Amino acid sequence: QVQFAESGGGLVQPGGSLRLSCQVSGIIFSNYILTWYRQSPGKQRELVAFINTAGNTFYIDSVKGRFTISRDNSKNTVYLQMNTLEPEDTAVYYCNPKRALSLEGSWGQGTQVTVSP
Questions:
Q1: Is 88 strand, coil or helix?
Q2: CB neighbours of 22 closer than 8 A, spacing ≥ 6?
Q3: Distance between CA atoms of 95 and 26, rounded to whole angstroms?
Q4: What is the rounded CA–CA span in Å between residue 47 and residue 95?
Q5: Helix (H) or strand (E) holding 69
Q6: Tens digits of per-residue pLDDT, 63-103?
Q7: Contact 10, 18 (CB under 8 A)
């Protein structure tokens, strides 16, 4: 059974930074693509970024240049460094390890990020 320990969310002013962490257990972590999704009130959940097993990364256009995803296989942890945060980044953020992007993967509780003056 996959278990998550997501942390790092909170309230931050526009232009501020947060670092999300997600420690995953119950899987062979290094074999998984690690993704971050987010869901804002009234909107569908969307993929924000992913990092594959080779360390290659992908970002949606709205966060390119501001967010950085990274992984530490020795700690079974994926990170999302978020800089220059905007109110539009307000959402619940979820990490989701997947064997393939087309798969549903597993969902944790998520961590709330609120960007507000």
A1: helix
A2: 4, 5, 6, 7, 34, 36, 77, 78, 79, 95, 108
A3: 14
A4: 10
A5: strand 67-72
A6: 999 999 999 999 999 999 999 999 999 999 999 999 998 89
A7: yes
Q: Does the pLDDT at position 4 exceed 90?
A: no
- 13: closest CA among 100, 96, 82, 80? 82
Q: Are strands 18-25 and 77-82 parallel, antiparallel or unpaired?
A: antiparallel
Gap between the Cα atoms of 2 and 76, Å rounded: 12
Query: 3-27: buried (b, 16+ CB within 10 Å) or exposed (e) per residue?
Result: ebebebbeebeeeeebebbbbbeeb
CB 30 within 8 A of CB 73: yes
